[in-house]
Amino acid sequence: MPEQLFLLGNLGTMITYAAIAVAIAVPLARAGQLRANRLAVATALIFLTSAIGHGLHAYLAFANLDREEHSVAIGWLWALAWWNVFTAAVGVYYWTVRQRHAPLRGAIYTGPHQQRLLDEADAHRATLEAVVEHTDDAIIGLTLDGIVTAWNGGAERLFGYPAAEITGRSVALLADEEGGVEQAEIRRRIIDQRERGVTYETRRFAKDGTPIEVSLSVGAIRDRTGRPAGISVVARDITAVKEAAERRRVVEERTHQAQRMESLGKLAGGVAHDFNNILAIIVNYTDFAVEEAAGNESLETDLKHVRSAADRAINLTRQLLTFTRGDTIQPRDVNLNAALAEVQAMLERTIGEHINLITVPSAEPVVVHADPGQIQQVLLNLAINARDAMPDGGTLVLEANAAAIDGDELDMQPSLPAGTYARLLVSDTGEGMTADVAAHIFEPFYTTKPRGKGTGLGLSTVYGIVSEAGGSLNVYSEPGVGTTFRIYLPMVRVPGTATPAASRQDDPPPGSGQTVLVVEDEPALARVVTRILAGAGYHVLTATDGRQALALFHQHDCDALLTDVIMPEMSGRRLAEIIHGTHPDLPVLYMSGYSNGLLGTTHVLDGDIAFIEKPFTANDLLHKIAEVVPTAVRPSR
């Protein structure tokens, strides 16, 4: 009877242990965790070895039921002993694995306190899951091979893939070929080099192909042993942030460009001011020499060459002054269609047969208030540049129309408020420009032409004219494709009529002994002015600064004051104010290498003063002085 009970007990225990082992192993196999979940496998294995051990005991009991001596073969005893040793080893392995899993340390069955802690942990986990699910950031779980295992609602909204559609697929689906290589490299760094995490910005693509600028935070998911078991990715859409940053960068760059242009303009104006003083001396002394060389044909020819070179230098300084936005202008209402027609007539004779010139006038009159000569100069400068960019021929298109802008354009130089503007377009099919070249083209003396082929003032002159007229420029160019300049100018709603001023070629009236106090800090130019006025019948007093001028004024009767504007210690404006304190009716004629427009904008002079711009000829000076000096000679004191 005891043998039967021993047999039945071992059979029952074997079946129970085997059932427990199967109950653990089958779900693991179905979940594919036989290799990953070592604790569960060790638990199933210890139950399996125990089941086999009890099966061996049951077999031995069954084999000895009919034997009287109940002897057991020595071989079976050794087999049973070794199997018990193996079972003990499995038990040791189980406890080793179990100790690596902190949640299982202590009692397997929990009491009320432990259960409350577990419930709180479950609630905390549910809260975290809700936060992860509803955050705007995309939170993605990956295997070490980059297969998506977790995909929250933020990822669905950002990339457009439902979780059911992308789970189990490679995350490389979100990137192009280059991005896929980048992803693999980041995973390698995290897994092999054990980096805590990597944060970087890159581009990914939504389900519909839309590019998305994202900030990625990638980290490893590690098990209790510290080995990587997966990868977590947090993706944030920074497309709007990068666009805003780019807009701020462009605005800052445009501000710096404006500041640089202003500084260059001041520099150019200063150079022109001093250079004009020199040119005034050269021009007038050359004229004096021509008069003295009458009858000497060879010497006259040489002097005419000198005068021709001086005239070229004068034109160059005028371009500089135009760049400084202070050139003397005569604005009037100008129909851009008429300006196009005039420029077309000029270009058809000079631009060359290899250029196909096309003009597209506006369907409606487009009128601006500007100097017509300067409008022509803008179009001609741009057309000449376009011609030079098409040495092998091409097409040049000149257009006039009206265009509305919203005021937020970032590529306008300078910026303009929102509104409707008159627009000129000059387009060519030439060589085009790189972005680096286009960023500097309006700077004076900047040129890409070979030495001796350009001064670098053409486009800076265009910039000066347009900005002085209250307008703006836009440049679009692609190397090998061509260039388009768009010029925006304030539009006149009710165009007026204007007649061009006639050029004064008549002889100036001579002086009749009137006394003119000349104040010029450049001694050589002061001598030239003195010679011109004295030769025309004026009595001239000359001073080189304000203090000397005041002393001469108090010593002599003066009919007019001719003074430089910008002088050391005392400006011409201040000198005139002091004199007008006691002689408010004294006529004053200002002269300067800076233009009247520039001096007016900087409030050095008012807009209604008498002004002559250097360099001037004797004819110009005498006409101007005749307009301000009284015709009658003041009686001596």
UniProtKB/TrEMBL annotation:
PROSITE patterns in alphabetical order = HIS_KIN, PAC, PAS, RESPONSE_REGULATORY
PAS domain residues are: 124-194
Entry's EC annotation = 2.7.13.3
- Name of protein: histidine kinase
- Protein's cellular compartments: Cell membrane
The reply on keyword Flavoprotein is no
Please state every residue range assigned to the domain named Histidine kinase: 270-493
Any transmembrane segments, and where?
Answer: 6-28, 40-62, 74-95
Q: Name the reaction it catalyses.
A: ATP + protein L-histidine = ADP + protein N-phospho-L-histidine
Residues found modified as 4-aspartylphosphate: D564
Stretches assigned to the PAC domain: 198-250
Keywords, A to Z? Answer: ATP-binding, Kinase, Membrane, Nucleotide-binding, Phosphoprotein, Transferase, Transmembrane, Transmembrane helix, Two-component regulatory system
MF (Gene Ontology): kinase activity
Main enzyme class: transferase
Boundaries of every Response regulatory domain copy: 515-629
